[in-house]
Amino acid sequence: MLESRKLLAFDIDGTILDSNKRPLASTIEALQTLRDAGHFVTLATGRSRYLAETVIRELDFENYILCNGSAAFLNHQQVFKETLASDSLQQLIEFCQELKIDTSLIHLDSSKRLSSFDMEKMEEAMTSFGSHASELGYLNEKDDVYQALAYYDQSFDAMFDGQYPGLNFVRWHEKCVDVVPENGSKARTILAMADRLEISREDIIGFGDGLNDREMLREVGIGVAMGNALEIVKQDADLVTKDNNSDGIWHALQELKLI
């Protein structure tokens, strides 16, 4: 067993969960072994709290980073909050409406779509992690927006990237991007959580498979890419393990001598 306490951050979809959207028995055992050894474990997901709620409850997570780093909780208490800049968000929504690009707003415990231009595209993106397109709603300036979704493919990327102050665009699906606060990312929030826990960067281990995990894998002490990750994601990792259907988390932790 390694001597120092670690902070281990796990993505949900394609990492903690297998292709059937369930955690493997080996993953459940690995998480408990880490806790028993005194290490800190946290989720680090693009999901909001209401979409991560089942995983949080079933796997006994007390710590979780949500909405790609826009919110973080330690012992179920919120310790970090970064919401979208309202002026830039309004401009983005208006531009998307002109282009007939659908958008959705993500709150901590709810979400809503602002249009219905292409329901099939929205459903395709959302069902990829076991969800569905949100109910139709509208932007209310009183509501905190932690993240937004814009449903467009890579041919539109140059029209958005770097064009809206305070907003970053992170692709996670071929037909959808996350819109996140400029100062919010999985990587930054994991580092902030580690600082709060007095854990050094080299003692942070991140597990992920998606495009929105790339910065995290680069910035933590050890970045672990799942075997099912895209090749470009694997290139950012220090270690590539087996896939999410083949005890990938367990095997990586064994290789790191943590279990």
UniProtKB/TrEMBL annotation:
GO MF: magnesium ion binding; phosphatase activity
Signal peptide span: none
Keyword Transmembrane helix: no
Superkingdom of this protein's organism: Bacteria
Gene Ontology terms: cellular component: cytosol
Alphabetic keyword roster: Hydrolase
Classification via SUPFAM superfamilies: HAD-like
Record flagged with keyword Hydrolase: yes
Gene3D superfamilies cross-referenced by the UniProt entry: 3.30.1240.10, HAD superfamily/HAD-like
Protein name, as recorded: HAD family hydrolase
Source organism of the structure: Candidatus Enterococcus avicola
Classification of source organism: Bacteria, Bacillati, Bacillota, Bacilli, Lactobacillales
